[in-house]
Amino acid sequence: MRFFLTTTAIGLAALGASAASAQNSASSWTGFYVGGQLGYGWQPKDGDEVVNFDRNLDGNFGDAFVNFQPNAAGNGGMCGGAPTSASPRTGCTKDNDSTAWKIHAGYDYGFGETSGFVVGAVAEYGKSYLYDNVTAFSTTPAVYKMQARLKSDGAIRGRAGYALDTGTLFYGTGGVAYGKIRNSFSSSNTVNTFTVNDPNKNAWGYVYGGGIEQKVGPFSIGTLYTFTALKNNKSTVRTSGGPVGGPFTVQNTSGTDFQRSFSKFAFHSIRATASYRF
Question: Nearest Cα to 81, choosing from 130, 52, 44, 47?
Fold first, then answer.
């Protein structure tokens, strides 16, 4: 959060200091541009996420599994985030926030000799360094963590806004998002075998947001907020082996499948932007 406040303060100061030197026409936004972005990403609160089970391997998740329900001693349960220990009593840590950076290239077209509308499109790609965890505690006791890690992400966004005669542009944006997600699994259970299906995923989704941008000679600087949601709903973990007739093989000798209840990898981001405009 400190990084976010610093970035915002720098952006606002730059906007105020540069307004007098800006080119005063909407049509001056017309043209190609390239640049970069640096900022901060964070995930929505996910404390309600759980792990669902397919115990008979019929493809339907949500089978009851008493081993993962809290008992009188307080063992068992679920939490969104990474476990702090093998005991559910200590709970889970919040999923991490992180720095985020991207490079971008785009084109804008401005209508009007002074103020007026600006429309355009931009393609971007970079990294956000985010992890999304969900944890299940069994009454054995043992802990089981499913993790999705965003390795890289990008988008193709349209944008439309209004340019003032001070060279300032206010705009909204939205489009198609893409991300490479790595799904992994870890457990304190050393008796059973665990296999992650579809660990590396090319995930697609959507992005929307808005921002402010200021012309400074051949450059423009600004601040951009986006919300991104990527579909990550097909990765499962097959639990097999262990004692004959054990909890994971009692309904199907091949094992039990785990799947997280949330189908999307979602995150917010706010970034400072800088572009060179041709």
Answer: 47
Where is 2: in which H helix or E strand? helix 2-18
State which amino acid sits at residue 260.
R
- With tokens 């329900």, the residue in question is 69
Q: How far is residue 190's CA from residue 4's CA, in Å, rounded to a whole number?
A: 42
Q: What is the pLDDT of residues 30-86, one digit of tens each?
A: 999 999 999 999 998 766 889 999 999 999 999 999 999 998 888 899 998 999 988
Q: What is the CATH number of the domain that holds 122?
A: 2.40.160.20
Task: Report the amino acid identity of residue 5.
Answer: L
pLDDT tens track for 144-182? 999 999 999 999 999 999 999 999 999 999 999 999 999
Query: What is the number of structural domains in the chain?
Result: 1
Sheet containing 51-54, strands listed edge to edge, beginning at the edge strand earlier in sequence:
51-54, 256-260, 236-240, 193-197
Spatial contact of 46 and 38, defined as CB atoms under 8 Å apart: no
Burial class (CB in 10 A: 0-12, 13-18, 19+), 1: exposed
Domain of residue 72: give its range: 2-277
Task: Kindly report the backbone phi and psi dihedral angles of residue 180, in degrees, each rounded to the nearest multiple of 5, phi listed first.
Answer: -100, 120
By C-alpha distance, which of 127, 111, 108, 126 is closest to 173?
108
